[in-house]
Amino acid sequence: MYQGLSVTVVIPCLNEEEGIKSVLSAKPEWVDETIVVDNGSTDSTVEVAESLGARVIHEKVRGYGSAYQTGFNNVQTDVICCMDGDHTYPIKDLDRLMNVFLKYQVDFLSCCRFPILNPEAMSFKHWIGNKLLSFFMAILFRYPIEDSQSGMWVFKKRVLDHIKLTSTGMPLSEEIKIEVIKNKNLTFKEEHIKYSAREGEIKLRPYRDGLRNLLFLFKKRLF
Question: Could you confirm whether domain 7-222 is CATH 3.90.550.10?
Answer without folding.
Answer: yes
